[in-house]
């Protein structure tokens, strides 16, 4: 993943030269911000939800340093961090996924109908049961099951002492 982030940042650094030439030709700051958004920020945002989970602190710092350089040189109007871009792209992906025509819509849990307090989404949360010991005892051979039961009883006794 480090090579992917390095590749993206090197591509964006090469595009800084184009921005530098545009700035020297007298392009306004607003126009520079639009060009920066279209050729640099969009490159960073491309498939960001897919690879952002693999970022380590070093890569985050390197990306934030690059974005700070864009602000310092006057290519963008406001300061932005990679964390801001990640949270924005994740939110936008979730909003699009909630539309019935989206290709990932079928992966979402079924919708819930409730008159309880409002939540950020209308999906059912997965149910959790504590009947794990019943499943284990039904699927494991009887001697192993008996050993597990004895271990559970002895651990309870030891905890109460």
Main attributes?
single chain; mainly alpha; 2 domains; disordered C terminus
Could you characterize what this model shows?
The protein has seven helices and no strands. The protein is mainly α. It has two domains: 2-97, no CATH class; 129-161, no CATH class. The longest helix is centred in the first third of the chain and has 23 residues, at 2-24. The radius of gyration is 26 Å and the shape is elongated.
The biggest sheet, with number of strands, parallel, antiparallel or mixed sense and barrel status, is: none
Q: What is the terminal separation in angstroms? A: 51 Å
Oligomer state equals: single chain
Low-confidence stretches: 155-161
Kindly give the count of domains: 2
**What is the residue-mean pLDDT, rounded to a whole number?**
80
Query: What structural class results from the helix and strand content?
Result: mainly alpha
Work out the number of β strands: 0
